[in-house]
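[stage:ingest] chain + small molecule (S-adenosylmethionine)
[stage:ingest] validated
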Amino acid sequence: MACSKPTTPWTLYRGDALRRLASLEPESIDAIVTDPPYCAGGFTEKEKQAAKCMGITNKPKEEWFVGDNMGTAGLCFLLRSVACEALRLLKPGGSLLVFCDWRMVSALAPALESAGLRHQNLIVWDKGSIGLGRGFRPRHELVLHFTKGGSKARYFTRSGSNLIACKRVPGRTRNHPTEKPVEVFEKLLEVVCPEGGTVLDPFAGSAASGEAALRSGRNWIGVELSGEFCRKSRQRLRQVASEVAA
Ligand SMILES: C[S@@+](CC[C@H](N)C(=O)[O-])C[C@H]1O[C@@H](n2cnc3c(N)ncnc32)[C@H](O)[C@@H]1O
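[stage:predict] done
[stage:export] tokens:
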């Protein structure tokens, strides 16, 4: 179900990413920027599928989100299918940017590349402080970058960097358990999407990418499976759109 009028710069569909992407027009999207389930809640396949909320032990499972307990093969299948749709939906030279956890990079990069996209880069989001864990405690997350066509990749600033430093969204203000900062999405969008262009996020969560798109003069299409996150995202995007219009 689309929740905005066609004249507004954003559209959020509630439903499954693959089904919805299949209904969009070919070569209608400038950039796909998305943060899918990481499925990284453990080191073994059994641990990943146990839905352990990525090791965040104080989170009740019912407050977590769907799809985060696939094994490696399931996640590779899902994201390769998204990459096949990306090849159809992106304008020539357009970009697909996919957030992921370090444990999954070695499986996901070849799976996505095998859809026919060019693997261009690995972007590091430096969160500025260490997270939970032992030994080398995690301070960064990663974003895989692919383009439709290699030499004809389209970029819209010359000052993009593959290191983005930005603090996490504080727990008390989060709309989603794994919400990403709007600023990180803004930094990604300015490189891969022209102003006035269209961004697609098939795993929208709380629509942080949508807020980034609207605040930076881009159009946004999102897909999200959870009714609750769709409801919160609609409120968020209506508020942002009215602030931008004011
Ligand atoms: C990592 S979260 C996205 C968080 C988002 N970037 C934010 O900042 O709020 C992934 C989202 O994908 C959604 N999801 C999982 N499987 C899906 C599917 N097959 N189709 C659409 N959405 C899905 C989950 O409900 C979850 O909200």
